[in-house]
Amino acid sequence: RGDGGRRRQPYGRNAYPDYRNHVPFEEPPEEVITEGSKSEGFINFEAYDDVSVEVSGENIPAPANSFEEIDLGDGLHKNISRCRYEKPTPIQRHAIPIVVAGRDLMACAQTGSGKTAAFCLPIICGLLRNGASNDRRPASRVACPTALVLSPTRELSCQIHEEARKFAYQTGIKIGVAYGGAPLMQQVRNLERGVDVLVATPGRLVDMVEKDRVSLRLIKYLAIDEADRMLDMGFEPQIRRIVEQLDMPLAGARQTLLFSATFPNDIQMLASDFLSNYIFLAVGR
Ligand code: ADP
């Protein structure tokens, strides 16, 4: 499998500044995030002033100019500072208030635009508000996450897992990960210790649900990252199986966030099938 060279590039290559290229992120050791010197202005936020933003839908929540003005709770605000994020990126300014308001979201944004925080922060905030977790160690051996993040590859899943763990630091929210190409039982045993947010590739997740290792019946948040890439990789059957044919609550009973760099017909179909009264957001230039 691969991208098959069919990646769609709507805004042109490098049209959108990529944070990955500009931000030296200091990886914290295993469980510790150190507070310390600020990153030294490597992010040129001025470069974002001419980034175009298109938003449509009913009752669109206002975008935020700073993280402080979004009520994410003390724990998350501390972790945002620990990550040395000073200002939200354009996708974060718009998406976080939309998700915090409980709305479904279809977001078009490139890799490196800060999508991970855009969906992880409001999801973790929602889980904390609704008293998920702390000690929801499953009585059975079936892992029952409350939030699911689908991502196309092992590499991306691991990256999202690492980022999400930083945001969830000392909140009690447990982040788990499952991907193909590695022993299943080891991942299952980690999930058995409890998982609130599961980051997974589609094939491995279908496998785990069919083997009764994971149940999706408690899912309140579903985020699908890089949806166009997943379709290019041929994952549509697995994605539809997960969202429509296993034990996932229906659209409307869960909150769904769909992220894609492009918005061709097949993604529009997914949006209309998976989302309910959604807000459309496109960030690019
Ligand atoms: P995407 O998911 O859109 O590909 P990421 O969310 O991984 O992009 O972000 C890319 C990089 O930018 C990561 O290293 C992330 O920690 C960093 N980053 C994200 N948001 C901010 C922000 N508001 N301020 C500073 N750095 C950020």
Short description:
By secondary structure, the protein is an alpha/beta fold.
List the main descriptive attributes of the protein structure presented here.
285 residues; alpha/beta; 10 helices; 13% strand; globular; disordered N terminus; binds adenosine-5'-diphosphate
Shape descriptor: globular
C-alpha termini separation: 31 Å
Q: pLDDT under 50 segments (min length 5)?
A: 1-43
What is the strand arrangement across the widest sheet?
1-8-2-7-6-3-5-4
Give the percentage of residues in beta strands.
5-15%
| Count of DSSP-assigned helices | 10
Please summarize the sheet with the most strands: 8 strands, mixed
Descriptive overview:
With 285 residues, this protein is an alpha/beta fold. It is built from 10 helices and 8 strands. Strand 4 (175-178), helix 6 and strand 5 (197-200) form a beta-alpha-beta unit. Residues 1-43 have low confidence and may be disordered. Bound molecules: adenosine-5'-diphosphate (ADP).
Topology:
Blueprint: H1 19-22, E1 52-56, H2 74-82, H3 90-100, E2 105-108, H4 115-129, E3 147-150, H5 154-167, E4 175-178, H6 184-192, E5 197-200, H7 202-210, E6 221-224, H8 227-232, H9 236-245, E7 255-260, H10 265-274, E8 279-284
Parallel strand pairs: 2-7, 2-8, 3-5, 3-6, 4-5, 6-7
Antiparallel strand pairs: 1-8
Bound molecules: adenosine-5'-diphosphate.
